[in-house]
Task: structure prediction
Amino acid sequence: MDYATYQASSCDIIELQSKFNAETVNEVRGHFDHLIKECAGDVLVDMSSVNELDSSGIGALVFLYKRLKTESRNLGLLGVNGKPDELLTMLRINQTIKQYESIEEYLSKK
Result:
């Protein structure tokens, strides 16, 4: 899976591409561990390019959310749309993990 990471003021951002499912989640899991252990701020997952999400991807997001919460850090999702947005809404995960349209929206609500 292709992904990119970068920093913006008080958070680290991981940008996912195309699919976040059983095929690709293991490739990103190691980087999630790095974000938990080595970085200090909040974490944003940019999902604006993700068009396929399954239970494995959701499980990885929930795992990341729980690990960050134990350290009083936050997880946010950027640009969720289409089927992934429908799935997160149906499962009510969008009520626990905040979603933002852009990094600017996240920074303005901080």
